[in-house]
Amino acid sequence: MSLRLQATSSCLSVGLHRVLGGLLLLSLLLTLLVPSSNGQPESIDMFAELRCLCVRTVSGMHPSKISSLEVIKAGAHCPKVQVIATLKEGKKFCLDPDAPGVKKLVQKILEGRGLAA
């Protein structure tokens, strides 16, 4: 009978070690996922910029309503070109970069700045 108790206690010991090892590994992984913060809001902005900003796009917008236009080229943060229009009233819309009207608008702005080829 004492043999059986020893076998059971060793099984419990092995099971406890596995559980504790798993919890230690899980806590280490969770600490890697939480970004370190030194109190500066720029660190939060840095993590927010690592994805596409435009989820939905609009195929066109009247140029007279647009106060500024921002073109973000494709990169590691997002595989597609993003065109963000800020309206005179302050709202922002993502424009479809493949729409003919948007292409004309971007081309016109680039020509006005002397940047078009």
TrEMBL record:
Chemokine interleukin-8-like domain sequence ranges: 49-109
Bilayer-crossing residues are: none
Give the UniProt entry's GO cellular component terms.
extracellular space
GO molecular function term, any single one: chemokine activity
Q: Name one GO biological process term.
A: defense response
**What domain of life does the native source organism fall in?**
Eukaryota
Instruction: Spell out the SUPFAM superfamilies in the cross-references.
Output: Interleukin 8-like chemokines
- Whether Signal counts among this entry's keywords is yes
* Matching Gene3D superfamilies: 2.40.50.40
Family per record: Belongs to the intercrine alpha (chemokine CxC) family.
Specify the protein name. Answer: C-X-C motif chemokine
